[in-house]
Amino acid sequence: xxxxxxxxxxxxxxxxxxxxxxxxxxxxxxxxxxxxxxxxxxxxxxxxxxxxxxxxxxxxxxxxxxxxxxxxxxxxxxxxxxxxxxxxxxxxxxxxxxxxxxxxxxxxxxxxxxxxxxxxxxxxxxxxxxxxxxxxxxxxxxxxxxxxxxxxxxxxxxxxxxxxxxxxxxxxxxxxxxxxxxxxxxxxxxxxxxxxxxxxxxxxxxxxxxxxxxxxxxxxxxxxxxxxxxxxxxxxxxxxxxxxxxxxxxxxxxxxxxxxxxxxxxxxxxxxxxxxxxxxxxxxxxxxxxxxxxxxxxxxxxxxxxxxxxxxxxxxxxxxxxxxxxxxxxxxxxxxxxxxxxxxxxxxxxxxxxxxxxxxxxxxxxxxxxxxxxxxxxxxxxxxxxxxxxxxxxxxxxxxxxxxxxxxxxxxxxxxxxxxxxxxxxxxxxxxxxxxxxxxxxxxxxxxxxxxxxxxxxxxxxxxxxxxxxxxxxxxxxxxxxxxxxxx
Length: 488
Description:
Elements: H1 2-30, H2 52-57, H3 59-71, H4 75-90, E1 98-100, E2 106-108, H5 109-116, H6 123-141, E3 146-151, H7 155-158, H8 176-187, E4 191-193, H9 194-201, H10 219-237, E5 244-252, H11 261-265, E6 277-284, E7 295-299, H12 302-308, H13 311-315, E8 321-323, E9 327-329, H14 344-348, E10 353-358, H15 370-378, H16 386-396, H17 398-411, H18 415-433, H19 439-451, H20 454-467, H21 471-487
Parallel strand pairs: 3-4, 3-10, 7-8, 7-10
Antiparallel strand pairs: 1-2, 5-6, 8-9
Protein backbone atom coordinates (compact mmCIF):
# COMPACT_ATOMS: atom_id res chain seq x y z
CA UNK A 1 0.00 0.00 0.00
CA UNK A 2 2.79 2.40 0.92
CA UNK A 3 4.67 1.55 -2.27
CA UNK A 4 1.56 2.18 -4.35
CA UNK A 5 1.00 5.57 -2.71
CA UNK A 6 4.64 6.50 -3.25
CA UNK A 7 4.38 5.47 -6.89
CA UNK A 8 1.32 7.69 -7.36
CA UNK A 9 3.11 10.66 -5.80
CA UNK A 10 6.11 10.19 -8.07
CA UNK A 11 3.78 9.92 -11.03
CA UNK A 12 2.10 13.24 -10.09
CA UNK A 13 5.49 14.92 -9.69
CA UNK A 14 6.65 13.55 -13.06
CA UNK A 15 3.49 14.74 -14.82
CA UNK A 16 3.88 18.16 -13.15
CA UNK A 17 7.49 18.47 -14.35
CA UNK A 18 6.46 17.34 -17.83
CA UNK A 19 3.70 19.96 -17.95
CA UNK A 20 6.14 22.65 -16.82
CA UNK A 21 8.44 21.69 -19.67
CA UNK A 22 5.65 21.52 -22.26
CA UNK A 23 3.73 24.66 -21.19
CA UNK A 24 6.28 27.27 -22.43
CA UNK A 25 6.51 25.60 -25.86
CA UNK A 26 2.70 25.34 -26.04
CA UNK A 27 2.35 29.03 -25.13
CA UNK A 28 4.94 30.01 -27.73
CA UNK A 29 3.15 28.33 -30.62
CA UNK A 30 -0.51 28.66 -29.60
CA UNK A 31 -0.54 31.81 -27.36
CA UNK A 32 -3.10 30.27 -25.00
CA UNK A 33 -2.69 33.09 -22.46
CA UNK A 34 -2.44 36.78 -23.31
CA UNK A 35 0.90 38.02 -21.91
CA UNK A 36 1.62 41.76 -21.93
CA UNK A 37 4.75 42.78 -23.89
CA UNK A 38 7.71 44.23 -22.03
CA UNK A 39 8.17 48.02 -22.02
CA UNK A 40 11.33 49.64 -23.34
CA UNK A 41 13.60 49.26 -26.36
CA UNK A 42 14.95 45.80 -27.16
CA UNK A 43 17.08 44.43 -29.95
CA UNK A 44 15.20 41.51 -31.49
CA UNK A 45 17.23 38.28 -31.72
CA UNK A 46 16.70 36.80 -35.18
CA UNK A 47 16.57 33.05 -35.78
CA UNK A 48 20.03 32.02 -37.06
CA UNK A 49 20.43 30.40 -40.49
CA UNK A 50 21.95 26.93 -40.38
CA UNK A 51 25.41 26.76 -41.98
CA UNK A 52 27.74 23.78 -41.54
CA UNK A 53 30.80 25.95 -40.85
CA UNK A 54 28.97 27.77 -38.04
CA UNK A 55 27.71 24.44 -36.70
CA UNK A 56 31.24 23.05 -36.34
CA UNK A 57 32.56 26.31 -34.85
CA UNK A 58 29.73 26.37 -32.29
CA UNK A 59 28.49 29.81 -33.42
CA UNK A 60 25.16 28.46 -34.68
CA UNK A 61 24.39 26.68 -31.38
CA UNK A 62 25.26 29.78 -29.35
CA UNK A 63 23.00 32.05 -31.43
CA UNK A 64 20.20 29.49 -31.42
CA UNK A 65 20.34 29.33 -27.61
CA UNK A 66 19.93 33.13 -27.50
CA UNK A 67 17.04 32.93 -29.95
CA UNK A 68 15.26 30.24 -27.86
CA UNK A 69 15.76 32.19 -24.63
CA UNK A 70 14.28 35.34 -26.17
CA UNK A 71 11.28 33.52 -27.67
CA UNK A 72 10.30 30.98 -25.00
CA UNK A 73 6.63 31.00 -23.96
CA UNK A 74 5.82 32.99 -20.77
CA UNK A 75 9.22 34.73 -21.04
CA UNK A 76 7.74 38.20 -20.43
CA UNK A 77 5.91 36.91 -17.36
CA UNK A 78 9.10 35.33 -15.98
CA UNK A 79 11.04 38.55 -16.60
CA UNK A 80 8.43 40.58 -14.71
CA UNK A 81 8.43 38.05 -11.87
CA UNK A 82 12.23 38.21 -11.61
CA UNK A 83 12.17 42.04 -11.67
CA UNK A 84 9.43 42.15 -9.04
CA UNK A 85 11.40 39.90 -6.66
CA UNK A 86 14.54 42.04 -7.06
CA UNK A 87 12.58 45.25 -6.49
CA UNK A 88 10.45 44.02 -3.57
CA UNK A 89 13.29 42.31 -1.66
CA UNK A 90 16.38 44.34 -2.60
CA UNK A 91 15.02 47.62 -4.03
CA UNK A 92 16.96 46.88 -7.21
CA UNK A 93 15.84 48.01 -10.68
CA UNK A 94 16.61 45.66 -13.56
CA UNK A 95 16.38 48.41 -16.16
CA UNK A 96 19.39 50.12 -17.70
CA UNK A 97 20.31 53.38 -16.00
CA UNK A 98 17.45 53.35 -13.44
CA UNK A 99 18.12 53.43 -9.68
CA UNK A 100 15.69 53.16 -6.78
CA UNK A 101 16.11 56.06 -4.38
CA UNK A 102 14.91 56.64 -0.85
CA UNK A 103 11.16 56.21 -0.26
CA UNK A 104 11.04 54.32 -3.59
CA UNK A 105 11.60 57.44 -5.71
CA UNK A 106 12.99 56.41 -9.09
CA UNK A 107 15.88 58.21 -10.82
CA UNK A 108 17.88 57.90 -13.98
CA UNK A 109 21.50 57.61 -12.89
CA UNK A 110 22.74 60.20 -15.42
CA UNK A 111 20.72 62.91 -13.65
CA UNK A 112 22.47 62.06 -10.40
CA UNK A 113 25.94 62.15 -11.97
CA UNK A 114 25.17 65.49 -13.62
CA UNK A 115 23.77 66.95 -10.38
CA UNK A 116 26.82 65.81 -8.37
CA UNK A 117 29.23 67.38 -10.88
CA UNK A 118 30.67 64.04 -12.01
CA UNK A 119 29.83 64.87 -15.65
CA UNK A 120 31.48 68.32 -15.50
CA UNK A 121 33.20 69.00 -18.85
CA UNK A 122 35.33 71.95 -17.71
CA UNK A 123 35.01 75.73 -17.82
CA UNK A 124 37.02 76.07 -21.03
CA UNK A 125 34.62 73.95 -23.10
CA UNK A 126 31.55 75.69 -21.64
CA UNK A 127 33.06 79.16 -22.15
CA UNK A 128 33.75 78.39 -25.81
CA UNK A 129 30.23 77.11 -26.38
CA UNK A 130 28.52 80.02 -24.63
CA UNK A 131 30.65 82.61 -26.44
CA UNK A 132 29.23 81.16 -29.66
CA UNK A 133 25.71 81.25 -28.23
CA UNK A 134 26.21 84.93 -27.39
CA UNK A 135 27.45 85.66 -30.93
CA UNK A 136 24.43 83.88 -32.41
CA UNK A 137 22.04 85.67 -30.05
CA UNK A 138 23.41 89.09 -31.03
CA UNK A 139 23.52 88.22 -34.76
CA UNK A 140 19.95 86.86 -34.86
CA UNK A 141 18.67 89.76 -32.76
CA UNK A 142 19.53 92.05 -35.69
CA UNK A 143 17.16 89.93 -37.77
CA UNK A 144 14.46 90.26 -35.07
CA UNK A 145 14.92 86.62 -33.98
CA UNK A 146 15.24 85.91 -30.26
CA UNK A 147 17.54 83.09 -29.13
CA UNK A 148 16.76 81.78 -25.62
CA UNK A 149 18.33 79.06 -23.49
CA UNK A 150 15.56 77.30 -21.54
CA UNK A 151 16.78 75.09 -18.70
CA UNK A 152 14.24 72.38 -17.97
CA UNK A 153 14.20 70.98 -14.42
CA UNK A 154 16.06 67.84 -13.39
CA UNK A 155 14.80 65.27 -10.92
CA UNK A 156 18.09 64.93 -9.04
CA UNK A 157 18.22 68.71 -8.47
CA UNK A 158 14.57 68.73 -7.44
CA UNK A 159 14.73 65.72 -5.10
CA UNK A 160 18.32 65.49 -3.80
CA UNK A 161 16.93 64.22 -0.48
CA UNK A 162 15.82 61.00 -2.19
CA UNK A 163 19.12 60.23 -3.94
CA UNK A 164 20.39 56.81 -2.70
CA UNK A 165 23.12 56.89 -0.06
CA UNK A 166 25.68 55.16 -2.31
CA UNK A 167 25.94 58.48 -4.19
CA UNK A 168 27.66 60.74 -1.65
CA UNK A 169 25.77 64.04 -1.98
CA UNK A 170 28.16 65.67 0.52
CA UNK A 171 30.92 65.45 -2.15
CA UNK A 172 28.90 67.38 -4.74
CA UNK A 173 31.11 69.65 -6.87
CA UNK A 174 30.49 72.32 -9.52
CA UNK A 175 28.04 70.97 -12.09
CA UNK A 176 27.62 71.83 -15.77
CA UNK A 177 24.19 73.31 -14.99
CA UNK A 178 25.57 75.65 -12.31
CA UNK A 179 28.42 76.90 -14.48
CA UNK A 180 26.22 77.31 -17.56
CA UNK A 181 23.87 79.55 -15.58
CA UNK A 182 26.72 81.55 -14.04
CA UNK A 183 28.55 82.12 -17.33
CA UNK A 184 25.34 82.83 -19.31
CA UNK A 185 24.46 85.61 -16.86
CA UNK A 186 27.99 87.03 -17.13
CA UNK A 187 27.79 87.12 -20.93
CA UNK A 188 24.26 88.58 -21.00
CA UNK A 189 22.69 85.55 -22.67
CA UNK A 190 18.89 85.16 -22.62
CA UNK A 191 18.32 82.32 -20.17
CA UNK A 192 15.14 81.04 -18.52
CA UNK A 193 16.05 78.78 -15.59
CA UNK A 194 12.97 76.60 -15.02
CA UNK A 195 15.09 74.33 -12.81
CA UNK A 196 15.43 77.19 -10.35
CA UNK A 197 11.71 78.05 -10.69
CA UNK A 198 10.71 74.47 -9.83
CA UNK A 199 12.89 74.41 -6.73
CA UNK A 200 11.37 77.71 -5.56
CA UNK A 201 7.85 76.30 -6.09
CA UNK A 202 8.61 72.93 -4.50
CA UNK A 203 7.18 73.67 -1.04
CA UNK A 204 4.28 75.86 -2.17
CA UNK A 205 2.89 74.04 -5.22
CA UNK A 206 -0.62 72.64 -4.66
CA UNK A 207 0.19 69.52 -6.69
CA UNK A 208 3.36 67.51 -7.41
CA UNK A 209 5.68 69.09 -9.98
CA UNK A 210 7.57 65.83 -10.40
CA UNK A 211 6.13 62.29 -10.31
CA UNK A 212 7.54 59.66 -7.98
CA UNK A 213 8.12 57.06 -10.72
CA UNK A 214 8.64 59.35 -13.70
CA UNK A 215 11.75 61.16 -14.98
CA UNK A 216 10.02 64.09 -16.73
CA UNK A 217 8.14 66.96 -15.15
CA UNK A 218 4.57 66.02 -14.20
CA UNK A 219 1.74 67.05 -16.54
CA UNK A 220 0.82 69.71 -13.96
CA UNK A 221 4.47 70.80 -13.65
CA UNK A 222 4.75 71.07 -17.43
CA UNK A 223 1.68 73.34 -17.51
CA UNK A 224 3.24 75.65 -14.91
CA UNK A 225 6.52 75.68 -16.88
CA UNK A 226 4.75 76.56 -20.16
CA UNK A 227 2.94 79.46 -18.47
CA UNK A 228 6.31 80.86 -17.32
CA UNK A 229 7.90 80.26 -20.74
CA UNK A 230 5.13 82.08 -22.61
CA UNK A 231 5.37 85.09 -20.29
CA UNK A 232 9.15 85.16 -20.89
CA UNK A 233 8.67 85.09 -24.69
CA UNK A 234 6.03 87.85 -24.50
CA UNK A 235 8.36 90.01 -22.41
CA UNK A 236 11.53 89.55 -24.48
CA UNK A 237 9.81 89.77 -27.89
CA UNK A 238 7.37 92.51 -26.83
CA UNK A 239 4.26 90.66 -28.05
CA UNK A 240 0.99 89.39 -26.62
CA UNK A 241 0.16 85.75 -27.48
CA UNK A 242 -3.17 83.91 -26.92
CA UNK A 243 -3.84 83.01 -23.30
CA UNK A 244 -4.15 79.49 -21.89
CA UNK A 245 -6.99 78.82 -19.45
CA UNK A 246 -7.25 75.96 -16.99
CA UNK A 247 -10.96 75.15 -16.76
CA UNK A 248 -10.56 72.35 -14.25
CA UNK A 249 -8.08 69.87 -12.77
CA UNK A 250 -8.59 66.10 -12.58
CA UNK A 251 -7.00 64.37 -9.57
CA UNK A 252 -6.11 60.77 -10.25
CA UNK A 253 -4.29 57.80 -8.72
CA UNK A 254 -3.90 56.44 -12.26
CA UNK A 255 -0.79 57.92 -13.90
CA UNK A 256 -1.13 59.48 -17.36
CA UNK A 257 1.33 60.30 -20.16
CA UNK A 258 4.93 60.31 -18.80
CA UNK A 259 4.07 60.37 -15.09
CA UNK A 260 4.96 56.68 -14.73
CA UNK A 261 7.56 56.30 -17.50
CA UNK A 262 10.36 54.94 -15.29
CA UNK A 263 7.94 52.61 -13.51
CA UNK A 264 6.85 51.18 -16.86
CA UNK A 265 10.46 50.62 -17.92
CA UNK A 266 11.09 48.51 -14.81
CA UNK A 267 8.61 45.86 -16.09
CA UNK A 268 7.19 44.77 -12.71
CA UNK A 269 4.20 42.56 -11.99
CA UNK A 270 2.52 45.30 -9.93
CA UNK A 271 2.72 49.06 -10.20
CA UNK A 272 4.60 51.02 -7.54
CA UNK A 273 2.10 52.95 -5.32
CA UNK A 274 1.93 56.63 -6.36
CA UNK A 275 0.67 59.83 -4.77
CA UNK A 276 -2.36 61.42 -6.37
CA UNK A 277 -1.42 63.50 -9.45
CA UNK A 278 -3.09 66.54 -11.04
CA UNK A 279 -4.13 66.76 -14.70
CA UNK A 280 -5.24 70.22 -15.91
CA UNK A 281 -7.93 70.55 -18.59
CA UNK A 282 -6.68 73.35 -20.82
CA UNK A 283 -8.51 75.75 -23.09
CA UNK A 284 -6.85 78.16 -25.53
CA UNK A 285 -7.92 81.71 -26.32
CA UNK A 286 -9.08 82.24 -29.90
CA UNK A 287 -8.18 85.86 -30.60
CA UNK A 288 -6.99 86.67 -34.17
CA UNK A 289 -5.68 90.05 -33.02
CA UNK A 290 -3.06 88.46 -30.80
CA UNK A 291 0.40 87.52 -32.12
CA UNK A 292 1.35 83.95 -32.89
CA UNK A 293 5.15 83.85 -33.24
CA UNK A 294 6.99 81.21 -35.26
CA UNK A 295 8.90 79.23 -32.64
CA UNK A 296 11.57 76.58 -33.14
CA UNK A 297 12.41 74.42 -30.11
CA UNK A 298 15.61 72.35 -30.18
CA UNK A 299 15.73 69.99 -27.24
CA UNK A 300 15.03 66.69 -25.55
CA UNK A 301 11.97 64.62 -24.63
CA UNK A 302 10.62 67.20 -22.15
CA UNK A 303 9.25 69.17 -25.10
CA UNK A 304 7.35 66.16 -26.43
CA UNK A 305 4.84 66.48 -23.59
CA UNK A 306 4.30 70.15 -24.57
CA UNK A 307 3.64 69.05 -28.15
CA UNK A 308 1.28 66.26 -27.06
CA UNK A 309 -0.94 68.75 -25.21
CA UNK A 310 -1.39 70.83 -28.38
CA UNK A 311 0.18 73.94 -26.84
CA UNK A 312 2.43 75.06 -29.76
CA UNK A 313 -0.40 74.39 -32.24
CA UNK A 314 -2.69 76.81 -30.39
CA UNK A 315 -0.21 79.44 -29.16
CA UNK A 316 2.42 79.61 -31.91
CA UNK A 317 2.10 79.76 -35.70
CA UNK A 318 4.00 76.46 -36.06
CA UNK A 319 4.99 73.36 -34.09
CA UNK A 320 8.68 73.08 -35.07
CA UNK A 321 10.65 70.81 -32.74
CA UNK A 322 14.07 69.30 -33.47
CA UNK A 323 14.46 66.28 -31.21
CA UNK A 324 18.12 66.11 -30.08
CA UNK A 325 18.83 68.35 -33.12
CA UNK A 326 18.27 65.25 -35.24
CA UNK A 327 14.63 64.36 -35.95
CA UNK A 328 12.14 67.04 -37.04
CA UNK A 329 8.68 67.02 -35.45
CA UNK A 330 5.75 66.97 -36.01
CA UNK A 331 6.73 65.65 -39.49
CA UNK A 332 8.56 62.64 -38.00
CA UNK A 333 5.33 61.36 -36.44
CA UNK A 334 4.32 60.13 -39.91
CA UNK A 335 7.53 60.02 -41.94
CA UNK A 336 11.16 60.39 -40.85
CA UNK A 337 12.61 63.85 -41.47
CA UNK A 338 16.14 64.78 -40.38
CA UNK A 339 17.78 68.12 -39.56
CA UNK A 340 20.74 67.33 -41.82
CA UNK A 341 18.33 67.12 -44.80
CA UNK A 342 17.24 70.78 -44.63
CA UNK A 343 18.77 74.20 -45.32
CA UNK A 344 19.72 75.29 -41.79
CA UNK A 345 20.04 79.02 -42.51
CA UNK A 346 16.64 79.17 -44.23
CA UNK A 347 14.93 77.35 -41.35
CA UNK A 348 16.56 79.56 -38.71
CA UNK A 349 15.49 82.74 -40.46
CA UNK A 350 11.85 81.60 -40.73
CA UNK A 351 11.56 81.88 -36.93
CA UNK A 352 10.70 84.64 -34.51
CA UNK A 353 11.99 82.72 -31.48
CA UNK A 354 14.51 79.86 -31.14
CA UNK A 355 14.44 77.92 -27.87
CA UNK A 356 17.50 75.90 -26.85
CA UNK A 357 15.76 73.58 -24.37
CA UNK A 358 17.77 71.20 -22.22
CA UNK A 359 17.43 69.29 -18.98
CA UNK A 360 20.04 68.59 -16.33
CA UNK A 361 21.08 65.23 -17.76
CA UNK A 362 22.29 66.54 -21.12
CA UNK A 363 24.37 69.61 -20.25
CA UNK A 364 27.58 67.77 -21.13
CA UNK A 365 26.38 67.56 -24.78
CA UNK A 366 24.65 70.96 -24.89
CA UNK A 367 22.19 71.18 -27.85
CA UNK A 368 23.85 68.39 -29.84
CA UNK A 369 25.78 70.45 -32.40
CA UNK A 370 23.19 73.11 -33.28
CA UNK A 371 25.30 75.95 -31.84
CA UNK A 372 28.41 74.85 -33.78
CA UNK A 373 26.53 74.37 -37.06
CA UNK A 374 24.77 77.75 -36.83
CA UNK A 375 27.99 79.49 -35.77
CA UNK A 376 29.75 78.34 -38.97
CA UNK A 377 26.93 79.86 -41.06
CA UNK A 378 26.97 83.30 -39.43
CA UNK A 379 30.75 83.49 -38.88
CA UNK A 380 32.24 83.05 -42.38
CA UNK A 381 35.80 83.80 -41.18
CA UNK A 382 35.59 80.92 -38.70
CA UNK A 383 38.29 78.26 -39.03
CA UNK A 384 37.64 74.75 -37.74
CA UNK A 385 38.98 73.86 -34.30
CA UNK A 386 39.31 70.15 -34.96
CA UNK A 387 40.22 69.04 -31.45
CA UNK A 388 37.21 70.94 -30.07
CA UNK A 389 35.07 69.21 -32.70
CA UNK A 390 36.38 65.78 -31.69
CA UNK A 391 35.70 66.60 -28.03
CA UNK A 392 32.12 67.53 -28.94
CA UNK A 393 31.62 64.29 -30.84
CA UNK A 394 32.74 62.33 -27.79
CA UNK A 395 30.29 64.23 -25.59
CA UNK A 396 27.45 63.88 -28.13
CA UNK A 397 27.96 60.13 -28.60
CA UNK A 398 26.43 58.66 -25.46
CA UNK A 399 28.19 55.27 -25.48
CA UNK A 400 31.65 56.74 -26.05
CA UNK A 401 31.15 59.40 -23.36
CA UNK A 402 29.87 56.79 -20.90
CA UNK A 403 32.84 54.50 -21.63
CA UNK A 404 35.33 57.30 -20.91
CA UNK A 405 33.38 58.33 -17.80
CA UNK A 406 33.35 54.73 -16.56
CA UNK A 407 37.13 54.50 -17.06
CA UNK A 408 37.71 57.69 -15.06
CA UNK A 409 35.62 56.31 -12.19
CA UNK A 410 37.69 53.13 -12.12
CA UNK A 411 41.13 54.76 -12.06
CA UNK A 412 40.04 58.03 -10.38
CA UNK A 413 41.25 60.15 -13.31
CA UNK A 414 39.97 63.49 -14.60
CA UNK A 415 37.06 63.40 -17.09
CA UNK A 416 38.04 66.66 -18.81
CA UNK A 417 41.62 65.44 -19.37
CA UNK A 418 40.46 62.03 -20.61
CA UNK A 419 38.09 63.57 -23.16
CA UNK A 420 40.87 65.87 -24.35
CA UNK A 421 43.34 62.98 -24.69
CA UNK A 422 40.84 60.90 -26.66
CA UNK A 423 40.06 63.86 -28.92
CA UNK A 424 43.75 64.58 -29.51
CA UNK A 425 44.40 60.96 -30.41
CA UNK A 426 41.52 60.97 -32.90
CA UNK A 427 42.84 64.23 -34.35
CA UNK A 428 46.38 62.79 -34.56
CA UNK A 429 45.15 59.66 -36.38
CA UNK A 430 43.02 61.65 -38.83
CA UNK A 431 45.77 64.23 -39.44
CA UNK A 432 48.28 61.61 -40.62
CA UNK A 433 45.76 60.40 -43.23
CA UNK A 434 44.71 63.88 -44.34
CA UNK A 435 46.04 65.51 -47.50
CA UNK A 436 44.79 68.99 -46.60
CA UNK A 437 46.94 69.90 -43.61
CA UNK A 438 46.43 73.51 -42.50
CA UNK A 439 49.01 75.44 -40.49
CA UNK A 440 46.70 75.47 -37.47
CA UNK A 441 46.28 71.69 -37.56
CA UNK A 442 49.97 71.08 -38.23
CA UNK A 443 50.96 73.10 -35.15
CA UNK A 444 48.50 71.19 -32.98
CA UNK A 445 49.75 67.91 -34.42
CA UNK A 446 53.40 68.68 -33.56
CA UNK A 447 52.41 69.86 -30.06
CA UNK A 448 50.62 66.54 -29.55
CA UNK A 449 53.68 64.60 -30.75
CA UNK A 450 55.96 66.56 -28.39
CA UNK A 451 53.73 66.00 -25.36
CA UNK A 452 53.54 62.27 -26.11
CA UNK A 453 57.27 61.79 -26.83
CA UNK A 454 58.87 61.35 -23.39
CA UNK A 455 62.44 62.08 -24.54
CA UNK A 456 61.49 65.18 -26.54
CA UNK A 457 59.19 66.51 -23.79
CA UNK A 458 61.84 66.01 -21.06
CA UNK A 459 64.39 67.89 -23.19
CA UNK A 460 62.04 70.88 -23.51
CA UNK A 461 61.22 70.70 -19.79
CA UNK A 462 64.92 70.96 -18.92
CA UNK A 463 65.31 73.99 -21.21
CA UNK A 464 62.24 75.64 -19.65
CA UNK A 465 63.63 75.09 -16.12
CA UNK A 466 67.14 76.26 -17.00
CA UNK A 467 65.94 79.46 -18.71
CA UNK A 468 62.87 80.00 -16.47
CA UNK A 469 60.48 79.84 -19.44
CA UNK A 470 56.82 78.82 -19.67
CA UNK A 471 56.65 75.14 -20.70
CA UNK A 472 53.46 75.43 -22.79
CA UNK A 473 54.83 78.45 -24.68
CA UNK A 474 58.09 76.65 -25.32
CA UNK A 475 56.26 73.62 -26.73
CA UNK A 476 54.28 75.94 -29.02
CA UNK A 477 57.49 77.69 -30.12
CA UNK A 478 59.08 74.34 -30.96
CA UNK A 479 56.04 73.40 -33.02
CA UNK A 480 56.24 76.72 -34.91
CA UNK A 481 59.93 76.17 -35.59
CA UNK A 482 59.18 72.71 -36.96
CA UNK A 483 56.45 74.11 -39.20
CA UNK A 484 58.70 76.89 -40.56
CA UNK A 485 61.49 74.43 -41.36
CA UNK A 486 59.06 72.03 -43.02
CA UNK A 487 57.85 74.78 -45.35
CA UNK A 488 61.41 75.96 -46.15
